[in-house]
Design goal:
It is built from four helices and five strands; from the N terminus they run βααββαβαβ. It is an alpha+beta fold and 145 residues long.
């Protein structure tokens, strides 16, 4: 799950047309960050996006998430609202939450979504412009040879 940081303030500061343009640029950036045909980016809500990476372990998901975070920041979409003192960046940034499971009776799609959403909000609570791996599920890292 991905959420643009302070997007409501961005939209109110620069207007809905600029907000729509920003969303389009971010959506394109997310899509271009995915390499495999089975990887699925989707708009999940107002300024939220979901990315599904089938057959991807937690370590690979972290790599993809970090690429998305860095590429969105590298867009250098100016964001300098007067109404928000102490903004850590002066460009649009994105926060991400990651969860990874092997589906079974206990780890279905709803559980995965809830874990990912909780990880996203952990990223926001920790200062935004970051990614956080869910600790709610028993995820699997690839074996190191």
């Amino acid at each position: 799950m991905c959420d643009l940081d302070y997007f409501k303030i961005y939209n109110n500061t620069y207007g809905h047309q600029a907000g729509d343009d920003c969303l389009r640029l971010v959506a394109q950036t997310i899509r271009r960050s995915l390499d495999r045909p089975a990887d699925v980016p989707a708009r999940y809500g107002g300024e939220e996006f979901a990315v599904m990476l089938p057959e991807t372990d937690a370590s690979a998901a972290v790599v993809v998430a970090e690429q998305i975070r860095a590429k969105v920041k590298d867009l250098n979409i100016v964001f300098n609202p007067e109404s928000l003192d102490g903004l850590p960046n002066y460009v649009v940034t994105i926060s991400l939450g990651i969860a990874s499971v092997i589906p079974d009776e206990e780890n279905d799609a709803v559980t995965l979504l809830l874990a990912t959403d909780e990880a996203l909000y952990d990223s926001k609570r920790q200062g935004r412009d970051r990614l956080t791996m869910s600790t709610l599920l028993n995820f699997r890292f690839a074996a190191v040879n």
